[in-house]
Request: fold
Amino acid sequence: MGSVRWAFRCGSWTPTRSEWLYAARCIQREEKDRIGQFMFAKDAKSAMAGRLLLRRLVCDRMGVPWSEIRLERSPRGKPYLAAPLKVSPDSGPEPWTWSFNLSHQGDYAVLAAERGMQVGVDVMKTTMPGSSSVLEFFRIMTRQFTEYEWSVIQSAGLERQQLGAFYRHWALKESFIKAIGTGLGFNLQRAEFHLSSQPITQDRALRQTKMHLDEEEEEDWIFEESLLDADHHVAVALGPPDKAGAGPAPSTLPPPATFTLLSFSDLIGLASPLTEEDPAYWDSFERKAEAPERQTDTHSYK
Reply:
């Protein structure tokens, strides 16, 4: 199979001591140290889930043994698979034909992967602004959207519906810039989205939304949209390969699939420990869990 759409509900995950310490043993030491620097348990859980999702993908779909997986980050922070030491002879397609991306915000961590295409994913939770009115929040964000997009957002209905339309557009834009790896230097008004007239739901994923880039409709990019639940929009951007050796883009894609919700047991089902147990890592996590949560910002944690 050439498509993967996985989600893990971090918000309701309350790891036990043994779960947290085992998870920490199953990721690379530098990633464990990085996760240990987060101030809040929510962020640490999301980041941990993201690393486990990536490693399960590489092990399960690319055939790289867990202990041989080496994930590194681009200068812009996008994870990628460094040269594996060995690949299972019956693993199927080469690892280099896959592209993958993560997002974690709100209550979920999500992973999208595709063979032979660029991929970017973004999840956004519809939340009321914490320190301003919806009108003031929209005023602050004015430059991130085109006039046409604002007309769609502001005509969506009541404030809650307008916020839903806002976060839907935001997830689409983020999925695109994550797929191309441009980062904060990209002018979001260059990418204008024309939404499908069909409502997005939890039961199915849609591919009808179109992107206009620099006022021209982009034929090479496909956008999938679905809901994880009533409050969480998720968007997946799929584009042509961006590097030599990535393989040709699929001539036909399978029908879009909704995200499969994984359990913690699923995340570690193929895992093997890479380091010794570190009891102090649990003590640190417990202190984070006792710290007061802060208001989630607009950007998803990458």
